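so i finally got all the pieces together for this one. its two components total, 523 residues if u count the protein bits. some of the lines might not be protein, just check the labels. i wanna see the whole assembly predicted at once instead of chain by chain like last time, that was a mess tbh
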Amino acid sequence: MVSRFDQRGQAATLEAIVAALILLSSVVFALQMTAVTPLSASTSSQHIENQLEASAEGLLATAVEDGSLKRALLFYNNSTNVFVGADNDGYNARPPNNTFGETLSWAFDDRGIAYNIYVEYSGSNTGRNLYYRGEPSDNAVAATTTLVVMDETPMYHHADDDGVLEPRSYTVSQALPNSSYIPDASPGTLYNIVRVEVVVWRI
Amino acid sequence: MAHLTGESTERAQILIVSAFALGVLFVALAVILNAAIFTENLASRGETTGGERVVDFRGAIERAVGAILTAENGNVTDGSPSYETLGDRIETGTATVRQFLGRQHARAGATGDLSVHSQENGSLIRQTDSGRNFTNASGARADWTVAGDVTRTRAFALTVNRSQLPSACTRLTDCFVLAVTDSGGNTWRVSINESNGVAVSVDNGTGSIGTCEPAQSDHVGVNITAGTVNGTACSALNFTEAPDGPYDIAYRNGDRINGTYSLTVDNTSVSTTAAHLSSSTDTDPSVTPAIYAVTVGYDYQTSTLNYSSSVRIAPGETDG
């Protein structure tokens, strides 16, 4: 008699433990579902991505409108084939020393946001990095704009120390065709069309 | 513990069955919650058809074709090309734009196409010698009509030398005056003189005279159609207050101002109606054939969107 009840007791205990495990794991599973929602604060929040994309687009639109993007793109040394003050891979330690670089710095640097800027154009050599900070994270967003460069567009340099670039005495069509930068892609007065892409991510 | 009854064995089974049921319930709740989160995720993503890419495409067309239009009009150094020649040059440039933008959007899984639908002919009037005053081509007339019978004007900009600008004259009277007058006698006038800087005064015919903040640099850019003085917006300088066309654009006291100017008007016969302008760019001021505006049709397709429209491009034309 005694032994029969003993066996039943063991089974009941085991069943209780299994029941407890099932309950516990289902609660854990359910809780995990709510750990990260799209609205949780994190580097991958969809809202942050939307915000970053909007600010990158706004920044590019302003830079196109006030001409600072064009000036920064043509702040180029055609004899050494690099952007002035940069190496072969573009600027990397800090943004370019001009109005566009300053805008980037104000918008992103103090907020723990990293960004790369790629320049692409028609022709044999297809693109360059204007600014390269490293491989973007999975949650990076991109904003792009296009810019028209005409044959008569001047190259730019710092003629005085007001931080704004001044036009050089020679034009794009005189300086660039023999460099490894933007080639002349059109027979008319159009020189090339440049696509600028800013990739932004939180670090 | 040795005297457990039969009832207790049944209870353990109920316990595991109910735990199992609760577990299923929790998982089901989690799945429902997950669906809600997924909805939230999609909802916070912004619109998904990619309509903003059409706006980008249109903006890129406007900028590129606008720049080509300005450059080809200004590049007339070989006498007077026909409007067909100018149109062909613009189409050549537009073909490059089409090729480049098409390739760029193809990478994003979209096709973008564009072509020039129509052109509006006009004339480009300009003076490029910055030391010259604003008299007519012979230099004999200080009061003269720059362009008559004009309906639309775009990209009208002056660059004024401050050092040669007199202060000893009365604005809107014997200082330099630019007058836009229609056949009914309605007039809109801009006067420029030296008064603590380059002072721009505007008489829009309502009786009160508007002024812009005096600009201090040696060469001051006054953009009539954009309403800016040295790049700063001036609310008094509002070209939309000028009479509707057809109107005449005239200079008064053109000997009291020096610098350059450039404007594009939609009148194709300025050179023959006004003998004040030279038809060669070697002599200032000159008038050359120019395309006033082009209409570009464009088409943009993605898997979720098919958009066709056209855009009229006239760089520097006042809105409204």
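Chain A touches chain B through 49 residues (CB under 8 Å).
The radius of gyration of chain A is 29 Å.
anyway lmk what u think
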